[in-house]
Design goal:
It contains 13 helices and four strands. With about 250 residues, the chain is an alpha/beta fold.
Length: about 250
């Protein structure tokens, strides 16, 4: 992988998108993790008016290492940043649901609230600043469906969606990203002690290997295929009824 060339191509991609959109700014959600770090750096290289939006939401990790890593990234690369605490909004949503009789939410319903609140926040900020929203999901997560529909899966553009986790790390090292971000265990920070690999039951190394070579341990392949199969709906546009399927949308 020619890291310097890959960075140059992605920066140019972002600049072209901005020119075509008529926007002059970018906003991205900054969780303090590897993917948003790479997206933030690329966007800043392409557009001076790039805003990091840090959105802690209940989890202690959000207010601890995640917050510190997000600040470290912005300080090192000169990225403007704001913080929007969504903990109260999340609690208000839960109270409203409880009042409607829904006080026993399953884990999926509960943990997906925060990513959707964050996307609402990002698009509100973007509308105010006449900016585009940058997505921060990588290829490995997309293949597994490891993202929230209408949450972190919603964006105007994504400059890293074709990169595996291993390739994300390569570009981060090339760009001189903070070591603490590169070395931390990947986590969405959705609940205490959560890590991506623990939750999925398979490592990103195994996922990347399968995506790139089709090879892997049988037990890893079984998990990967199951995640990929049940998440097809996340990678498709919503179904709409048409009298004539041949009609153009």
């Amino acid at each position: 992988m020619d890291c310097a060339l890959e960075i140059e191509k992605r920066v140019e991609f972002i600049r072209r998108l901005l020119a075509d959109s008529g926007c002059s700014a970018i906003v991205f959600g900054n969780s303090g993790g590897k993917d948003c770090a790479l997206v933030g750096i690329l966007c800043k290289l392409a557009c001076e008016d790039t805003l990091s939006v840090v959105m802690p939401c209940g989890s202690r990790q959000n207010f601890g290492s995640d917050l510190q890593h997000a600040r470290t990234l912005c300080e090192k690369f000169g990225i403007e940043s704001i913080q929007v605490d969504l903990s109260g909004v999340q609690q208000a949503e839960l109270q409203a649901l409880k009042a409607a009789g829904m006080d026993e939410l399953n884990r999926a319903a509960l943990t997906n609230i925060a990513p959707r609140l964050r996307m609402t926040t990002l698009y509100t900020v973007a509308a105010q600043r006449k900016a585009l929203v940058a997505g921060t999901g990588n290829r490995s997560e997309r293949y597994m469906g490891y993202f929230t529909k209408w949450g972190d899966g919603a964006f105007d553009f994504n400059p890293i969606s074709d990169l595996t986790v291993g390739e994300v790390y390569q570009l981060l090292r090339q760009l001189g990203a903070p070591a603490e971000i590169i070395e931390k265990a990947p986590s969405a920070g959705l609940f205490e002690g959560q890590t991506d690999e623990k939750e999925m039951g398979v490592t990103y190394g195994a996922i990347d290997r399968y995506i790139l070579t089709g090879e892997g341990a049988p037990e890893d392949i079984a998990i990967i295929n199951r995640y990929h199969s049940i998440s097809h709906h996340k990678r498709r546009l919503p179904a709409v009824f048409r009298e004539n399927p041949e009609d153009k949308l």
